[in-house]
Specification:
It is a single chain. By secondary structure, the protein is an alpha+beta fold. It has one domain: Bactericidal permeability-increasing protein, domain 1 (Super Roll). About 30% of the residues lie in helices and about 35% in strands. The chain contains five helices and ten strands. The strands form two sheets. Strands 1, 2, 3, 6, 7 and 10 form a six-stranded antiparallel β-sheet that branches. A four-stranded antiparallel β-sheet has the order 4-5-8-9. Strand 2 and strand 3 form a beta hairpin. The longest helix is centred in the C-terminal third of the chain and has 28 residues. The relative contact order is 0.16. About 5% of the residues have low confidence. Bound molecules: 2-acetamido-2-deoxy-beta-D-glucopyranose. 2-acetamido-2-deoxy-beta-D-glucopyranose (NAG) binds next to loops.
Length: about 240
């Protein structure tokens, strides 16, 4: 038989283990502390957890990404992106009354690989092809603005959830684009458009990135929300 004391000690131990799991507690308006806690939790947030139904976000796998712009259309089949665990959150500002969260994400080297199909015009040049691709980014800066909501868990406690978000993405150093088999392997035409893309990496990323970022962030947020349901607000803020 356990004594009441042993049961209490065990419960306290379990509770403190649970508390230390994700976002270390901070005082409500201490955004320096909160930013540090969230950055410490980031690798875990981006990891798979079968119990919670969370898929890995680094590597992050998507079935299909479609871009449908007026001049250019593309599909990325089973793209896999790596590098999110190296991102750092900065300038975190949360307002729990207004239920808003602002933050900036600096990602030093994201890389996406998979198969592609593309056709249309890449600014001044025609582009056409299908095959393997690899996009290696240098640094990316992502500005995120979330609308949050309070969710009541099965335990009747209040939890936070990211309801919707807006993002602004900016490549801040050169990106390398490698698309195999452009123009059915006609080397002259393929080299010309690839050289152009690599020289004009900023404009090319501005043109093509939105659907890619959208799908990636949707998945990251949906997984993040599952983790957020493991830590009630009264544990996150003390
Ligand atoms: C998955 O999440 C559960 C519930 O929060 C936790 O108990 C478990 O340790 C996690 N598993 C891994 C591998 O992180």
């Amino acid at each position: 038989m356990f004594s009441i004391f042993e049961i209490l000690a065990l419960t306290t131990l379990c509770a403190s283990v649970a508390q230390s799991e994700l976002i270390a507690p901070c005082h409500l308006n201490d955004m320096v502390c909160f930013e540090k806690s969230v950055n410490n939790a980031l690798p875990q947030f981006l990891s798979e957890n079968e119990t919670l139904g969370v898929e890995s976000c680094d590597p992050l796998k998507i079935d299909l990404i479609e871009g449908d712009m007026s001049d250019i259309k593309f599909k990325l089949f089973s793209p896999i992106t790596t590098g999110f665990k190296k991102c750092v959150l900065k300038n975190v500002k949360m307002n729990l009354d207004a239920l808003t969260l602002h933050s900036e994400l600096d990602c030093p080297n994201l890389e996406t690989t998979g198969k592609y199909e593309i056709s249309g015009r890449l600014m001044t040049l025609p582009i056409e092809g299908s095959g393997d691709f690899k996009i290696s980014a240098g640094t990316y800066k992502i500005i995120l603005d979330f609308d949050l909501e309070n969710v009541v868990g099965n335990d009747n406690k209040a939890y936070l959830s990211m309801k919707s978000f807006k993002q602004k993405n900016e490549a801040t150093s050169p990106i390398s684009f490698d698309f195999k088999n452009l123009f059915n392997g006609q080397k002259d035409m393929a080299d010309k458009v690839l050289t152009y893309a690599n020289q004009n990496w900023k404009q090319v990323s501005d043109l093509l990135q939105e659907p890619i970022w959208n799908e990636n962030m949707k998945k990251i947020i949906s997984n993040g929300n599952k983790y957020l349901m493991t830590e009630p607000l009264d544990q996150m803020f003390i």
